[in-house]
Amino acid sequence: MSKIFRNQVDCLFIFSPGGGDANNYFLYHIGSGYIISFLRLNGYTAEQFIYNDFINLENCVRKILMYNAKVIGFTVFNTNFITSILIAEELKKISPKTIIALGGPTATTYSEFILGKYSFVDVCFRNESEEIFLQFISQLSDNHFDFKKIDLGQIKGITYRYGDKICRIPESNILVQNSKKTDYLDKYPSPYLSGFIPGPAGFNIGLITARGCNQNCVYCNCAVLSKRRFTTHSVDRVIGEIDFISRYSARNQILKFFDDAFSLIPQRAKRICKAIIENKIKIPLGCITRCDCIDEELLDLMMEAGFVSIGFSLESANPKTLRIIGKVHKAEDNPSDELEKEVLFIEKLGVVSTYAKKIGIKNIFSSIMVGLPNETIEEANRTIETIDKYVNIDYYIHNFLNIYQGTPLFSTYPKYGYKVIFIDDNPIFSRTIYPNEIVKEVNVSLKSQIHRTQKANDNNTLKILSLLDEKNSADGWFNNIILLSDTLDRHFVDWLKEILAINGTIIQIYSNKDALFNHSKNNYEKFIRYSTPSLNILNYYLKRDNNLLLINSYSPSLLDLENKEDCISICDFNFVRSNLTNPEINFLKILCKESGVDDAISAYDYFCEAKKEKNLFSSLINKRAFPYFANLCKWTKDLSNCKNRNTLIVNDISEIRLCWYGRKIGTVGQSYIEIFKNFESCQNKISNQRKCNHCMAKDYCNKCISPFPVSDEEYCIKQNMNDITKVAELFMSFDAFKQYM
Q1: Residue 198, preceding bond cis, omega within 30 degrees?
Q2: Residues 576-599 pLDDT 10s
Q3: Tens-place pLDDT, residues 110-138
Q4: Which of 16, 35, 510, 689 could form a disulfide with 541 if both were Cys (CB 3.0 to 4.6 A apart)?
Q5: For the chain, which domains are there?
Q6: How many Å apart are CA 228 and CA 261, to the nearest integer?
């Protein structure tokens, strides 16, 4: 067993951010939490890399290396695979003797491909890894953590590199072999009760009461990975964890169960609910489950136990489609009966959702999937109609079928007319090509979460386009990139690895709709091929409508939203001023960019008048919302993007700017230090020309180097005439409240 050295750990686990989620932080993960707790129980030092802020690749690697870990393990999903690989590669370059291990669903399915393509990865762990990781670390410890000296051939459930060979050892099947043992999962210490994961983190990470799934859905690999076995924790263990986390409960925080289906064994779910009630634990709870694994008695107990959110998976309201995908009955292309089970399944969704809402469960949602085998447009739309008919379903998740390796459908999809394309010959990043355009033709109900997602994306986009100040705790990178270009190349993606925060937001604005349709897929493939530090990419295109410039959002799975009201509009201040009382204008979807000198002076005069208000904040709250402002920061003291350096604007000839009307301060490829040496040189030159150090306004003026459309001379005159710093900053700060309006 290894000795514990100061500032050194045996294993460090990393769950990197990734995908379309705007989460930029390195958080706890329940899977690695189990392994860490189990390793600690057996005397090894293990930690999770936690970093609650934006960070770029270089600084992230530097902080990870400070742990001096002998083994670094990554929990990888398809969504965070690229960020994990980028970090792992840099770690191996700097510290070649550090052992790089990958685990999680993606490492399980693609272990041989990963080891073949990425030479810096030493070993992949497949499926549940508590016990096999312990065997692995024990062998390493006995051999002074020299990976080349150990014989891993006896450790089942791993794939590893041995010289030039890739060795795949047969499955461990630990949970399968012990699935008949009562509550076998209790063997592994609780990440919460063992003191590893703090209680407040539980509301983000959730809880697992059981692992595995015994269903037959052909599009899902959960049952495949668990060999259709179901392994549980004891009710006492579950209650202990819920009770612990409940002590840190705050308003509107929900503790979610991340079982594949919480009530897969209804009687067990009832025992858990009764124990919560008997122990008088008060905490809001949420889960997903199946409507055929729940009844009124269980719903009553769930309501009393504190459940406020329940999701029911439907996928399709077409009985034959349900049979083909194996949702209720073993999959059959040619049904052997009258589909009675499927009909009852669809009907029961309406019954249980109605009863759940009747007894007071606040949030009832469902999930559907379009693009399913042999389903017609009429049948797919019938699913949407069914969801709309069930009035007690608050919203639904509008999923699109993707065919992944490891699922039963992967071996049969050609017979249904699908094609699966691997981006850059990488099976981890695949694109499902449907036999028709059905996914783009299916109705999108107002209940669809797509509308919520798009609203959140547009809110985030507007904040970034307005260069709104946000937290950035360190110099060296940007949180956001605005790319005004139809195309991109490897040089740009390689530069992002230095300049952009891991999983930072990339907003790409295309010149028009055709340009987006012609180039977006190719651009995405380049992001994958050249290993971008972020796949948090929001695509938009420009469209003119009379005096307004519209920015339309685009989802690769759906046609763009053509409704003008759903677009982000760019207008000048005179349009804003003349329409402030117009109820048809939604200013929450507008970005105001001053169009010329007169327009800029009009805005300045308006803010001078606003300064006379006795309580401007109350006035703003009571009035209709104002738009976001693209260049209001020139009148603030400390809220300019050139000071806080959150967002960088890049145009189609690789020029870099810090604001919409800013001077060029560099080109793509330059380092962060070079960029800001250019900026500071420009700033010093202009300040000297204006004699800013001798100006009466120097204490509140931010000395904007690009006050366009106002001239430098007019800018200085206005700053000396009237200090509107507090007014401008209040208007900009007010933007932070708009998402709640």
Answers
A1: no
A2: 999 988 888 888 888 999 989 999
A3: 999 999 999 999 999 999 999 999 999 99
A4: 510
A5: 11-172 (3.40.50.280), 200-445 (3.80.30.20), 454-740 (no CATH)
A6: 13
